Amino acid sequence: MANQKKTRNQNISKIRKLRKEEVSVDSLIEGIRQSDKASLARAITLVESSNPEHLEQAEQLIVKSLALNSNSIRIGITGVPGVGKSSFIEVFGKTLTLSGKKVAVLAVDPTSALSKGSILGDKTRMEELSKDPLAFIRPSPSGESLGGVARKTRESIILCEAAGYDVILVETVGVGQSEIAVHSMVDFFLLLKLSGAGDELQGIKRGIMEMADGIAINKADGNNVERAKLAQAEFARALHLYPPKENGWVPKVFCCSAVENTGINTLWELIQDFTKTMKTNGHFERNRKLQNKNWFLQTVDEQIKVYFHSKKSFVEAQEEMLKAIEENKISPYHAARKLLDGLKEQLK
Ligand code: GDP
């Protein structure tokens, strides 16, 4: 009896706590507007939530956040584990906050759902920056798919911008297609590289050079300076072989050291030059609009898939086709056609 009472009291207090934790969209927006980190963190949690009840609130938050003007620059940063991303972001971020800029660091790590310890673990990373009142750091959202993680990150960018963050850094490990996802949500894409034994271009992922607006050869310090310079020259030569970018930007290669804090100002000058040029020639705005349109199309595609896969009749028809394929009664292409023709009939 006493135990039952205790459990009931515990439940009541849990419910009370939950209620207390429920904050209205308006008060969250007000907090975000005042750049309150706790409100921003809570808003991001809502956007990341897979609870259908939070969906409506998350949508309202995004709509209201979009209405708050922002003049941010979104920078994507990629490089293999160990290249020095977190050290680099720490130093770069501190340089920016020292000049009064507000910096948000987000991450896209599609492995975080698979392995408990994600590649971009956030424990001891960016120790200084995480204590900086002008900086906001958020680890990668988890999700079953890269699409899900990317959506959440895109929406978090909007929330950070509404909270007045001037520079949004989106870090990725470059697993699978994550670089493409990050490239599609930023203005400037930075590739961090190490100097090797003169075979710098080997092992570089296809398509990554075309995406980069800047390449930083990191760890250009100590005995490594000469090798880093050679790597810089090799990358610069290789970049010349690519057709010019539509926006007229010629990607730049530079050396830097997160440990010695060199080359960091070069990067910031480069990004400012990029932003100025792109804003003058109209490509800054055009690129963001294009990204928004692609985001819309991608969302429609995803939602169509989700919709049909949630329909019992669709799942059953699919099962039937799979069985027919198993029994060699139909070719895969024909089966797909038949299934989709049936759908088209229903939609008429
Ligand atoms: P991440 O996995 O890409 O985030 O790389 P980390 O920032 O964790 O760095 C990996 C290792 O490289 C750490 O031991 C760092 O101290 C070291 N490191 C990072 N940047 C530099 C640099 O500019 N110079 C040197 N010498 N070491 C660095």
Automatic annotation (TrEMBL):
<dbReference type="Pfam" id="PF03308">
    <property type="entry name" value="MeaB"/>
</dbReference>
<protein>
    <submittedName>
        <fullName>Methylmalonyl Co-A mutase-associated GTPase MeaB</fullName>
        <ecNumber>3.6.5.-</ecNumber>
    </submittedName>
</protein>
<dbReference type="GO" id="GO:0005737">
    <property type="term" value="C:cytoplasm"/>
</dbReference>
<dbReference type="InterPro" id="IPR027417">
    <property type="entry name" value="P-loop_NTPase"/>
</dbReference>
<dbReference type="InterPro" id="IPR005129">
    <property type="entry name" value="GTPase_ArgK"/>
</dbReference>
<dbReference type="GO" id="GO:0003924">
    <property type="term" value="F:GTPase activity"/>
</dbReference>
<keyword id="KW-0378">Hydrolase</keyword>
<dbReference type="GO" id="GO:0005525">
    <property type="term" value="F:GTP binding"/>
</dbReference>
<comment type="similarity">
    <text>Belongs to the SIMIBI class G3E GTPase family. ArgK/MeaB subfamily.</text>
</comment>
